[in-house]
């Protein structure tokens, strides 16, 4: 594993040196974050607990991993400035487990509890008859008394769905 530092910037406000690096690993798999931290600490002459790798990744099919790291002036500065999940990834902080539900006092045995009898369901009332269903349909009208004239009776009813086509009619 061979590490090259591509860029180094000093950030006095955050008390750190920001690095961009490249790791060549020709015959091996992508190196672990811990092994890269160790090699970076040797390259910049700093203790490992002050080196925090922000991100690193390798492209598919290549044996080169690029990343960004920060070397802090003190371990306390590293822990106070860096985000918690990055500290967990670098092994500088333990992962906080989600709050487990608090243990409740054990409930008394099932024999001590009296099961409640279910209340009887009320009987449904008979539905009232629908007025449209009870009235008989009106008798059909004879053809001579039909309200539409015979010429319009043979015409096709207009289509309910509009035709899909051009938005504007064709001009002639």
Element layout with pairings:
Elements: E1 2-11, E2 16-24, H1 33-44, E3 51-58, E4 64-72, H2 75-81, H3 84-90, H4 131-134, H5 150-153
Antiparallel strand pairs: 1-2, 2-4, 3-4
Overview of the molecule:
By secondary structure, the chain is an alpha+beta fold. The chain has a domain at 2-90: 2-Layer Sandwich (Alpha-Beta Plaits), CATH 3.30.70.330. It has 5 helices and 4 strands; from the N terminus they run ββαββαααα. It has helices at 33-44, 75-81, 84-90, 131-134, 150-153, and strands spanning 2-11, 16-24, 51-58, 64-72. Strands 1-2-4-3 form a 4-stranded antiparallel beta sheet. A hairpin with a 5-residue loop joins strand 3 and strand 4 (64-72). The longest helix is centred in the first third of the chain and has 12 residues, at 33-44. The model has no long low-confidence stretch (mean pLDDT 80).
């Amino acid at each position: 594993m061979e590490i090259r530092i591509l860029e180094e910037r000093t950030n006095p406000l955050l008390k750190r040196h920001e690095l961009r690096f490249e790791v060549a690993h020709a015959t091996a798999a992508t190196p672990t974050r811990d092994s890269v931290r160790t090699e970076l600490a040797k390259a910049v002459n700093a203790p490992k607990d002050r080196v925090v790798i922000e991100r690193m990744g390798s492209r598919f099919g290549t044996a080169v991993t690029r990343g960004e790291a920060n070397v802090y002036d003190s371990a306390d500065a590293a822990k106070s400035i860096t985000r918690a999940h990055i500290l967990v990834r670098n092994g500088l902080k333990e992962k906080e487990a989600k709050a487990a539900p608090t243990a409740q006092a054990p409930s008394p045995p099932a024999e001590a509890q009296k099961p409640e009898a279910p209340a009887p369901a009320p009987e449904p009332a008979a539905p009232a008859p629908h007025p449209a269903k009870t009235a008989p349909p009106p008798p059909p009208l004879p053809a001579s008394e039909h309200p539409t004239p015979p010429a319009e009776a043979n015409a096709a009813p207009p289509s309910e769905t509009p035709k899909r086509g051009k938005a504007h009619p064709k001009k002639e």
